[in-house]
Specification:
By secondary structure, the chain is mainly alpha-helical. It contains 17 helices and no strands. Helix 2 runs antiparallel to helix 8 and helix 10 runs parallel beside helix 15. The N terminus is likely disordered.
């Protein structure tokens, strides 16, 4: 009599994935909402329009600063506690931002954005949480399903902007009130999560390489550079897009539609990026991503018609997907499991540090490098070139090295 083949029971994992997909769709909708209106709101509040995109920069900065504490909280108290904290921060950040709009205080509005960054940080752990209780066979599907929730948020968020941005006397106040509602309602979803707390590592567990030793590893260094460039350039251009679209004579609804197309382009390729990496190799996919990012800039430089904005932002999303996911895959294969926490934390610090710098630069390039929106938009897209050369050169250097070096 032969032994029966054991089939993994993924019922708990499927339930958790359903919760996380819903959270990605509902709570995640606030991020495209804020990215559409925060720069426009900042432009109306700031005494110097060069600081119009500072609210978005502070969201990214808040995400960078809170990534390690949120990760530690989840390691100690579990995923639910970390996600609840993120939703709470999203609600508080939305409330402070709404009050800042109500009293026309730019510093208060910026403080609300900084708090919102904690939500952005917590959201980054959704797809990792999807894999926590999944079997090896179900794990890729679990992550893909949660990514699908990102597609829903890409549709829901900008549509809510259309309904709320001018719904009250104070522009954009209705959008921030909607953000508060999304966080308070979405937080209840996490009561349905069933993910156990991670085990405490033993005292004799291997320590691995130091952070500096990890960064001196060629493959890790190139992976970090490509991830930083892909994410930072995507943020650089996306942050300025609503300002450019409205500044070139189009409407806020047009800007919302373009952001929707961009975020869809960011997430849809995720369903086949992994297959392409397996077939063609991670270096080629990262190189393709960098080339697509360059093509996004070239399309944007051809003109400021609505088709140029759509085409450039769609290419920007696909380029980010190939470049960032490829670089993440490259990084994951370049360190040992017991080095994962140290390396991933360092990677996030460096990547979001670069994204913060890009967000800060975006407003200055857009509003202070020329006399009109078209000139500023040109400056934003030209600024991509040196960083793409840096990442491309690093990747070529890695590919030309001997495999055993």
């Amino acid at each position: 009599m032969t032994d029966a083949v054991l089939i993994p029971d993924d019922s708990r994992a499927r339930r958790n994935v359903a919760v996380l997909v819903a959270a990605q769709a509902v709570l995640g909708a606030q991020m495209p909402m804020i990215f559409v209106v925060a720069g426009l709101a900042g432009q109306s509040l700031a005494s110097n329009i060069c600081f119009a995109t500072l609210p978005i920069s502070l969201i990214v900065l808040g995400s960078m600063l809170s990534a390690t504490p949120v990760s530690h909280l989840m390691q100690t108290y579990g995923r639910r506690a970390g996600f609840m904290l993120g939703a709470g921060a999203g609600a508080v950040g939305g409330a402070v931002g709404a009050y800042g709009l109500y009293v026309a205080s730019f510093p208060l509005f910026l403080f609300g954005s900084l708090i919102t960054g904690t939500y952005m940080s917590a959201q980054g752990f959704y797809r990792f949480a999807a894999a926590d209780t999944a079997s090896e066979g179900f794990r890729p599907k679990a992550i893909s399903y949660v990514m699908a929730g990102g597609l829903l948020s890409a549709i829901i968020g900008p549509q809510l902007v259309k309904l709320t941005s001018q719904s009250l006397v104070i522009p954009f106040l209705g959008t921030y009130l909607a953000v508060i509602t999304l966080n308070l309602g979405g937080a209840l979803l996490f009561l349905l999560l069933d993910i156990p707390k991670p085990p405490v590592p033993s005292l004799d567990a291997p320590r691995g390489r130091t952070r500096m030793e990890l960064l001196k590893t060629p493959r890790i260094a190139v992976a970090v550079i490509c991830a930083m460039v892909s994410y930072a350039l995507m943020n650089l251009v996306m942050t300025s897009t609503p300002l450019a679209v409205v500044g070139c004579g189009f409407t806020e609804n047009n800007a919302a539609d373009i952001v929707t197309a961009h975020v869809l382009a960011m997430y849809i390729p995720s369903f086949f990026t992994g297959h392409l990496i397996a077939r063609f190799g991670v270096e080629r996919i990262v190189a393709t991503g960098l080339l697509i990012l360059a093509s996004a800039g070239m399309v944007a430089l051809q003109g400021v018609e609505i088709g140029n904005f759509f085409g450039a932002l769609i290419l920007l999303g696909v380029g980010w997907n190939f470049g960032f996911i490829g670089a993440t895959t490259m990084l994951a294969g370049a360190h040992a499991p017991h080095e994962r926490g140290r390396m991933q934390g360092l990677n996030d610090l460096l990547v979001f540090g670069g994204v913060t710098f890009a967000s800060l630069s975006s407003g200055g390039l857009m509003n202070c490098s020329g006399g009109n929106a078209q000139t500023g938009w040109t400056a934003v897209n030209l600024a991509m070139a040196p960083f793409l050369v840096l990442a491309g050169g690093a990747l070529i250097w890695l590919m030309m090295r001997p495999k055993d070096a």
